[in-house]
Amino acid sequence: MTSTHGRGLLHLAAAVDQSVAGRQALPDADLYVEAARLAESGGLDFVTLGDSFAHPGPDALGMLARIAPATARIGLVATGTTTYAEPFHARAALATLDRVSGGRAGRQLDVHATGNENEAGDGAENEAEVAARLFGRRRAAPGGAPPDGKEGDAKTRDLATGRFVGEGKPHHIEFESATFSVTDPSAAPRPSQGHPVHVVDATEGQTRQLAAQYADVVLVRAVSAAQADAVRDELRLTAKDLGRDPDELRVLASLVVDLGGGEYAAEPGHGGGGPRPSAHGPLYRGGPVDLAELITAWHASGAVDGFHLVPAEPRRDLERLVNGTVALLQHRSLFRTFYPGSTLREHLGLAPPVKQCAGRVVSAGGAS
Questions:
Q1: Per residue in 179-199, pLDDT tens?
Q2: How far apart are the first and last CA of the chain?
Q3: CA–CA dist 341, 250 (Å, integer)
Q4: What residues contact residue 38 under an 8 Å CB cut-off, 6+ apart?
Q5: If 0-12 CB within 10 Å is exposed, 13-18 middle and 19+ buried, where does residue 322 land?
Q6: How many whole angstroms separate alpha carbon 103 and alpha carbon 71?
Q7: What element of type H or E holds 205?
Q8: From the CB of residue 251, how many other CB atoms can be counted at a distance below 10 Å?
Q9: Who contacts 97 (Cβ-Cβ below 8 Å, separation ≥6)?
Q10: Cα separation, 255 vs 267, whole angstroms
Q11: What stretches in the chain show pLDDT beneath 50?
Q12: Beta-sheet strands, E only, within 259-345
């Protein structure tokens, strides 16, 4: 039986990005499928896969659609830049992935800040600037989620007649903001989960309001349990003030993990004392056993609901994570050995989402 001490059931996720010298590798579907299936063999809640305009790499949603039929239970979370993606197209693609995967899709919202994002002055064009140049989109402040275009049993359009099967269920949507507009309901089927799971990195203070209002899963890059716990408390308080049930938030500490080539003690500062800061986020460097001890200690203290782990060396560290760290946690009855449900929301213990249907919706400052 899995232990429920600390903040409840322990949740674990891993990145399956295949990087080379800090940059995303050119797409090789077999590598991504192999990584996702390995993570699924360990019972992880979900895997994340990023995409980027600034350097070569896979289209995350497209690659996860390739992974979906090769897996059966693990959640599939795409990391994308919401500021420069057309919301209508992004939502339709995500809804399709959720249908194809049987309710296992999620999206990590990576919203860029509105200020100068290249303050280092090194002349390098950053990802936001590349996206703006390619697509001509203006910078945007984080915003809310548009309302649903369909109720749960609404059907898609009959192309022969132009009518929707189940007439009256799709809701006419007119959403306007300073950066985009959406008119009419999506032609894509409603996601199997109602809404795919929303993931937000709330390490930076300015993202926490958005995370507390809309996220199902919140990532926090923390170098100590105390730091993670403080952010978690802030998020829960903000969610409560916004009328949300704080227990519907899952807060995961996000760590880069370097598990090396053999079992050895964590380097000073990387074990029980927590990870060290690095250019790529908090870094744990040590063996799988000490990582299991760190995960156990942070979760038992109530600081986090789980961990999102980013392998420093993708194939080596993911294998050692699953077959070493996760296997030990399972042996200690601290982590699941099978999936009790079939959807990502079920893995995370999240209730079905409340419908957000509406007629005409206009951003703050406009008429409704």
A1: 445 555 555 667 778 789 999
A2: 51
A3: 17
A4: 318, 319, 322
A5: buried
A6: 12
A7: none
A8: 25
A9: 61, 64, 65, 68, 76, 78, 105, 196
A10: 15
A11: 1, 3-6, 20-21, 83, 112-125, 127, 130-144, 146, 156, 164-165, 167-168, 179-180, 272, 358-368
A12: 283-285, 306-311
Q: Which two tokens stand for residue 271?
A: 């074990």
Q: 112 with 83: CB under 8 angstroms?
A: yes
Angle at 207 between CA 139 and CA 136, to 5 degrees: 15
| DSSP code for 196 | P
State residue 212's pLDDT score: 95
pLDDT at 255: 96
For residue 231, give the H/E element and its range: helix 225-241
Q: Tell me the torsion sign for CA atoms 63, 65, 70, 72.
A: positive
Q: Which two tokens stand for residue 345?
A: 């929301």
Contact 223, 277 (CB under 8 A): yes
Residues 6+ apart with CB under 8 A from 17: 24, 48, 49, 50, 57, 310, 314
DSSP codes of every residue in 181-223: EEES--SSPPPTTSSPEEEEE--SGGGHHHHHHH-SEEEE--S
What is the chain's Cα-based Rg? 20
Closest CA to 85 of 170, 166, 228, 182: 182
* Residue written as token pair 């040590």: 286
Q: What per-residue confidence (pLDDT) applies to 247? A: 94
Look up residue 206 and give its DSSP letter: G
- The two tokens of residue 309 are 């782990």
User: pTM, whole model, 2 decimals?
Assistant: 0.78
Tokens of 74: 């693990």
